[in-house]
Amino acid sequence: MDAFLTRIQQHRHEFYRFVLRTVWDSAVAEDVFADAVLTAYQNKERFTEGTNFRAWMFRILANKCFVANRETARRPESFDEKESDWSALSAEPGYADALAAPDAFLEQCGDELYLAFRRLSTAERACILLRAEKFSYQEMADLLDIPVGTVMTHLARGRTKLRRDLLEYAREQGIIRPALRLTRNAQGHGMERKETAAS
């Protein structure tokens, strides 16, 4: 086998996993992956020996995923979309409970974790997946051709969206308890605790 293709084969599973989780339409993942491999092979002379092959390949993969998602036209998006304020999440009821035992919490969420991840933008998903592959912020910025600050923004926003979606699901399913508030009893004497759904 060609030495270049052998390199790709060594990392095939992580490369394909990235594509499968980044494209909106998983049915086209195989085609997107094949197109990325073909592009890499046709441009193999541009790869500099001794540099990071994984990073070089992930950049091609990311570009192909963004093209595929634009063609799917699920929604217009940009790496530079306005940052939302998610700072209030940590104060929401049940958030601390979910963080106390994250593995158990995620296990109970089941398929909702996958669905919540699918609802993220391409940029948010790409940044989260690349971070999971142990790339540094600077490496991710180089791969996606965006500033380091934008990478950190997408990471923070994506993680917060996942936490918020899963927190809402957990409340609805009774995985975590609703918030407790104090109210006066019917006679107007003393206080009593009532469970309330989060707004």
Written account of the structure:
- It is a single chain.
- Helices cover 60% and strands 6% of the residues.
- Helix 3 packs across helix 4 (53-72).
- The chain has two domains: 3-72, RNA polymerase sigma factor, region 2, helix turn helix motif (Rna Polymerase Sigma Factor, Chain: A, Orthogonal Bundle); 87-177, Arc Repressor Mutant, subunit A.
- The protein has a two-stranded antiparallel sheet.
- It is mainly alpha-helical and 199 residues long.
- The chain is elongated and about 55 Å long.
- The protein has helices spanning 3-10, 12-22, 29-42, 53-72, 95-100, 102-109, 111-118, 122-132, 137-144, 148-173; strands spanning 179-184, 191-196.
- The chain contains ten helices and two strands; from the N terminus they run H-H-H-H-H-H-H-H-H-H-E-E.
Secondary structure: elements and pairs:
Layout: H1 3-10, H2 12-22, H3 29-42, H4 53-72, H5 95-100, H6 102-109, H7 111-118, H8 122-132, H9 137-144, H10 148-173, E1 179-184, E2 191-196
Helix pairs in contact: 2-3, 2-4, 3-4, 4-8, 4-9, 7-10, 8-10, 9-10
